[in-house]
Amino acid sequence: MTAIDTAREATHASRMLRFARRNPALAGMPALLVAAMLFTLLIHPSFGSFELQSLALAALPLALAACAQAVVVISGGIDLSVGSMMSVANVLAGSLMSHGSTTAALGWSAAILVAGAAQGLMNGLLVKISRIPDVVVTLTTGFILGGVALLIMERPGGGAPAGFLDLAAGSWISEWLPNAAVFLAVVVCAIWIPVVRSRLGLLIYATGSDRVAAFRSGVDTDFARLMAYVISGLFSACGGIALTMTTGIGAPLSGTIYTLSGLAAIVIGGVSLSGGKGGMTGPVIAAILLSLIPADLIFLNIDPNYGQVIQGTLIVIVVMAGGFAVSWQGRK
Amino acid sequence: MSLANPRASGAPVGMVLAYLRRNTIVALLLLLAAFTAGIEVVRPGTVTPLWVSNTLLFAAPLGIFAAGQTLVMLTGGIDLSVATVASGSAYLLATNASLGTPAAILIGLALGILVGLANGVGIALMRVQPLVMTLGTGLMTGGIMIVYSQKMLASQPRVPSFIQTIGATKLAGLLPYDLFVWVPIATIMVYMLRRSGFGRLIYAVGDNRAACELAGVRVWPVLLTAYALCGFLAALAGLILVGGTNASNLSLADSFLLPSVAAVIIGGTSIFGGRGGYSGSMVGAVILTVLTSLLTLLDVSEPIKQILYGLIILAMAAAYARLTE
Amino acid sequence: MVNNEAVLSVRDIAKNFGSVRALSSAHLEIRAGEVHAVMGANGAGKSTLVKILTGVFAADGGTVTLNGKSRTFRSPAEARAAGIVSVYQDPALVPDLTVAQNMRLARVQFTEVRHWLGELGVRQLHDGDMIRELPYATLRLLDLARALASNPVILLLDEITAALPADLAAQVFKIMRTWRESGKSVIFISHRMAEVSSLCDRATVLRDGRTVGVVEMTSGADEQIVSLMLGTEIAAHAKSAGGPLGDLSSVGDRKVALAVTDLHYGHALCGVSFTLRRGEVLGVSALEGQGQQELFDCIAGVRRYASGTIRVNEAPLRPRHPADAIRAGVVLIPANRVEALLPQRSIAENVALAGFGKLSSWGPIAMASERERVATAVQRLRIDTRAESEVKRLSGGNQQKVVIARWLASGFGTLLCFDPTRGIDIGTKRQIYALVRELAAAGNAVLLFTSEMPEIALTCDRVIVLYAGKVVRGMPATEADEASLLRAAHGLAAGGGGQPAQ
């Protein structure tokens, strides 16, 4: 009686095609990056390992901010406090690590990560208990955390041991493989892969895709959203520590721009703002792309202040194209 | 849970809460009174007619920000570009003062309308999410202003005296001139939302866009107008702000983004749209201004003020959400 | 089959939402091996009771005893774990995950699910398929199969056959009977009396938040249930309000209100043609997915048809937006009231909405005349205005009336009703059908699609049957018995009687 086809092995090509059809933005990202890199090489043929290193350093905090935002957005929410959390982690690192050894700095890092997770937990609990929409909650906690950062460190300063800074600023393996790139890969994989392979990952995607259906299927959607905020806090803390590593100091306003830039990166990187779709790869690639822009502007002898204009315009174009595509499909 | 079920508890507390739920503006006014009393307690003698007049002077720009934000939030959206638009408009005014005050004002306001229209096109016609669209245009505007300011380094930005009069001074020493801008706007807003077809549509579109289309109402003109108005009002608020501070820099209005949203939320408008109004936002704007005064009087550092401000906003928003659930 | 021990015993359940008393004392007793119906008008408390049983809310009072143990369920996960699984109208499947992932969510083995999918007649389903890409009917059955695969003690079906084609509904009933044979219990919620009579052993009737009776499903149980649901006098009134058919002989003389010729739309409509005259109620009957939704949407301007012609009162109509159709006097009442209403706004604002289509209406509102128009429409439809501050608080039937009131207030010539009585209680259903007949008698033209074939004959003058995007049969309502309709709906030739499609 069971005349149902069992899950046959779809051919590799048809599976890839299906993936590309379902995630158009994501499928195009690597190609876009390659194109951007080629363009950069074209306008600046002397692009060498030094430039690569600078690019990696610039992209690292942004990529981590993007990951932080991506987790929450996939779960169906939004987090406008990412930047402030990064600032807090940055000034905590800058002040705690300024007179110590690399080992001590590593120890402090662990503590800061816990603090980040705690900040995320606070966001999640507030969203759940206060019944206030997450936009408003995180806008406000971002503001509060901005004050906390200023409280910890009024002015840029502090520092960290050279050995610790080198974790991201150096290039131990090869001059063509900056530590920052390795650091990014390790952090993202260490945090995200266990989540996405586990039941928690399934719950997060389900909750973001359709909260009611997930709830009726027996999913604890409150828990999923809470954990998404905790993971986001973890990523933000990493981002703040990365800021310390890349700038060498702690600064209370260092993270502010990353809230919106991170959001830009996930939008460009194919994470749907309505939740349930996307991953970390797209945002990370988008972060690299966005970091290329100021560099390219300098190479082209264009005023680097145009960078923000371009970033804003990119967001607008990408989302308008996305919106246009959706409404065009709906018309069929 | 007695909060949600007043009849079951029967206690007077329950009845008071039920009354407040139906007339939330009373709850807001009580909160305002509480904060004002708090100021009097912390530093007796502060609350005088002059203090009230100063409070209204400072509340007016926020009130005007909140007007635009109320309009778009009622449609279920949000405008994160209001701060950069306001700063940009103020900057444009100051750098074009040499063209004469009326022309400079028009240029400033034009920026607001332009950005508002851009937002409207994206949101109404391309179905982009308001958060992201206004985020993008805010970044674009901010970036363009930075580039523009580089080119303007040589010139001397100057705030026209007319603007300074509106933004900083009072009639007969007691009635702030910026109220002559805020009160008409407030009147128009309240009337428009309650008694005009456009106002009805703002609520309808925010409540259920698809139902409007099915009923034969085209939604995009409503959204386009709402965002254009919001941009215009943000620019207006920026002009008044710069009149008050007499220093135009590009981060003039940065600290107004959160309060503009908070005033509307506390005032009872749902961020999901379809419910609320401007009278609550007005009181919300005054409450936040008084709160800032209160925090200034406390002998604490700036960072702590910032933290307290945020915490109190959270508390107010949460209390409001509980009251009206 | 049915033994007398109670598997589930619910007593004195109470639930309040703010000042609204949804349930005051609901009782329910389910035995092993029985299919038990829960019936009641909209607003009687059925869905609240269901949500309490499935852990969506907690009750404010009363007890739930499952297999002898007193239980409270704080979440659907807990209810599932205890063995109560429910299947709602909207499939509880997450759109951006695959079939396999959705099974994992509910902690169910796909092999079991595949077995039940086979029993329900679903083929060609791969576990890597994305839910978003699957057809609606398949999703409903997948949802049911998943529920069955978790082997629940009590299976709760909430309006399972709404918007399900008759053949698939029959499969569902077959499975229900098998399930019952194995000693399991089913709680069956439906507004379709015919189904309840044929499938269920007993029925509990709720009214105004209380259980007012438990009826054994023997002959005559139907009317007993209806009286209990409505309260006896209303039952008598509702019965007589089921409209008599219009005078057929004069229909042919009346002017043509809507003429559709060779309408094409994608794969869904392959040349639909029919005429609708003033004063006529034309019924459309079809199984799920035969193009009826697309047909109504194209006429109403929700979708743009590819080719063919639509003429309204002799003038051609090619609507790009509902506003175009509305200007021609063609208005749509959708099946899903949620689509057409503003939930947080008042009845008045909802009814007056259609008057704001033009830019010229953006100015000051003439409040007095609006109030009058709204009041007239509300009165005519006998809308219960107790919860008038927010339309979302009204019962489904009243909500549907608000949608109709909107068009009464702004005027129309041709009314398109798409499954207007879906999920509405029997009393209001009859009111709506009576209203449809009244509107036709007043000179309007009505095109009516309903998924309930027995009801077609009650309301319509003529019926056309849609199959595979074409009109395959047309017949006067007197010949539209369920057998003929079903035969035509499956694309089979007439077994005798009925005329070919015109």
Structural description of this entry:
The complex is a heterotrimer of chains A (332), B (325) and C (502). Chain A has helices at residues 12-22, 24-43, 49-74, 82-96, 102-130, 134-152, 162-169, 179-197, 199-209, 211-216, 221-247, 256-268, 281-299, 306-330. Chain A is mainly alpha-helical. Chain A has a single domain (48-320), classed as ABC transporter involved in vitamin B12 uptake, BtuC (Orthogonal Bundle), CATH 1.10.3470. Chain A is globular. Mean pLDDT of chain A is 87; it is low at 1-10. Chain B is mainly alpha-helical and 325 residues long. Chain B has a single domain (24-323), classed as ABC transporter involved in vitamin B12 uptake, BtuC, CATH 1.10.3470. Chain B is 74% helix and 1% strand. Chain B has a two-stranded antiparallel sheet. In chain B, helix 4 (49-74) runs antiparallel to helix 12 and helix 5 packs antiparallel against helix 6 (101-125). In chain C, a hairpin with a 2-residue loop joins strand 14 and strand 15 (315-316). In chain C, 35% of the residues lie in helices and 25% in strands. By secondary structure, chain C is of the alpha/beta class. The radius of gyration of chain C is 23 Å and the shape is globular. Among the domains of chain C are: 6-83 and 152-240, P-loop containing nucleotide triphosphate hydrolases (Rossmann fold, 3-Layer(aba) Sandwich); 243-328 and 451-502, Rossmann fold, CATH 3.40.50.300. Chain C has helices spanning 46-53, 76-82, 99-105, 110-119, 136-149, 166-181, 193-199, 221-230, 232-240, 292-300, 322-327, 337-340, 347-352, 367-381, 396-410, 426-441, 453-459, 482-489; strands spanning 6-17, 20-31, 35-40, 61-66, 69-70, 84-87, 154-158, 185-189, 202-207, 210-216, 256-265, 269-277, 281-285, 307-312, 315-316, 330-333, 414-418, 445-449, 462-467, 470-476, 499-500. The longest helix of chain C is centred in the middle third of the chain and has 16 residues, at 166-181. Residues 233-249 and 496-502 of chain C have low confidence and may be disordered. Chains A and B meet through helix 5, helix 6, helix 12 and helix 14 of A and helix 7, helix 13 and helix 15 of B.
